[in-house]
Fold this sequence. Notes:
Layout: H1 3-12, H2 18-38, H3 40-43, H4 53-62, H5 65-83, H6 94-125, E1 137-142, E2 145-150, E3 157-161, H7 162-187
Amino acid sequence: MTLIDKASRLLLAPPARGRRALLYAILLVAIPTGLRLMVDGIVGGRLPFFSYMPFIVLAGALLTWRNAAVVALVSWLIADILFMEPRFDFALDPVEIIGFMIFAASSVMVIALVEAVRTIVESSLRPTRPEGFSAPVVFSLEGGQAWASWYGSHSWVRLGPEEEVAEMMHDFLAQRELGKRLESETLK
């Protein structure tokens, strides 16, 4: 399974809710805080928010956008208190306000982008017709590859090289005919 397949699967899964969402939220704040603490001796009071942004992306993918926004807010509070000078002081001086505004704007854009990608993936990989509604399969060729899609769906499935697929289809049709013949002989 490729990275794109895994990402698509993650985006197609419903966002976590309840206890699972709470566990994810705690981990999505605790892990980057731990990572930032590990490099604190190297970076000091600089770059207080850098370890959090990849986890905001994950929050957007794993949680609802509201819960992801809460993760971003809690991340900012912890980063501000633990890593901005003066430490363990929540003074909201101009530097802290500017840092918050940049982090908040970045978080909003990342969460919105993840939501947009989720919508694009959902609309392109899920059929637009309700389940159980039979839609004919459409086969096509492009660049020597055989593809299948369904009316009303925006997704395409690559079946493989044209010759291999033609051979498999021929074999499938022969098996189907044999099955029909055997069934009709059994019914006689």
